[in-house]
User: Fold DUF4468 domain-containing protein from Selenomonas ruminantium.
Amino acid sequence: MVKEMSKHVVQSWRWLLVLCLLMAYPLAASAEKINWVDEHYDFTRVKKAIVYDVVVVDKSEIDNDLIEAVMLEEYLKTAARPPYKMIRADKTVAISPGSPLEGADIYVMAEMLKWHNDSYVVDAYTSWETRTSTRKVKWSDGTWHEERYDYTVPVYHPARTVPTSTVRVRFDVYDAKTGKKVMSRDELRKRDSSDHGQQGIFGRISKKFFDDLGDKIKNE
Assistant:
């Protein structure tokens, strides 16, 4: 009975420690997304879409023109995912000289609003971790047996610097005939220790948006 109570106390302390750590340190990822769709718009009739280049508003940390070039290339690949014929903005005049937008059903615009690299410091702390070992115990009949048991030890974690990457992108979709906005999304994502940095985050934001647009065209 005493052994069971001790085990229960140890488990309770473990859960308490986990909760304290979750409250003390920031999450490794966060996202904020504002999404709006005109529920009365018939997306299923969309067959052609003009996709404009991304307008990079925040260039304060983009010190290499190759970054913009690679970003745009990946963006256009992602923009081609929905089930429509994608028309590049520089081709619209050739398709419909009198009114460039007449050759499409919708047009898509995007703005890079935030492209930021930062870091924060996680203070040093000590946690209690469980270890397992074995020991010899003598039973009442005089025989010796081996049993496993758990014990806790303090583990010191030194302070560390965690890099962060933040990207915010806004997308707007308009009906090409009326100029009326039919879909918008403003998304900000922040990742700690991201392997691909801002470029990878931008790619995932774009992919999610165009996948969602594609779903509306297919399933509305």
About this structure: The longest helix spans residues 2-24.
